[in-house]
Structures are given as C-alpha cells and as structure tokens.
Amino acid sequence: MPRCSRLTPFRYGCTVRLTEFRELLVEEFGQIRGDSILVDHVITGIDGLTGAEAIEAGVDPREVWRALCKEFDVPRSRW
Description:
Blueprint: H1 14-29, H2 31-40, E1 42-43, E2 49-50, H3 51-56, H4 61-71
Antiparallel strand pairs: 1-2
Helix pairs in contact: 1-2
C-alpha cells in the first residue's frame, strides 16, 4: 500500500492519480515549464494556491489539472 505523504484523502490511490497528474503536466507543458507552473503559478480558481500547495492541502489533482488547463487555455479535449 503506497504512502502518500500528507495527502491522506487519497490514501490508497494517490500514487497513480498523482503520477497521472504529473504525466499530463509534462505532456502539456514540458518538464521544466510544468515543474515551474506547479510550484510558482497561483491558481485563482483554487483559493490563490499554487498547484503544489493545493494538492498538498488535499485538493483533488483532477481539479488542479482542470484549473491549470483553464488558466493556460489548454483545449478542452486535453482536460
């Protein structure tokens, strides 16, 4: 059973979900830009948190992904 740091709401499935989130981020923005967006970009739709802060606070990675897509005008087909 994977341990997911302080992401207790995702206790049993978080590794796969977070891995999928990271893969989507890298596919869409590239490794360097994706990493930067995750830790630097404040998401207005999620209480002014960065993506990393939101996930750490327990926000579903899918919600973070959709918020990032919306703010960066990613086509809906890739949400």
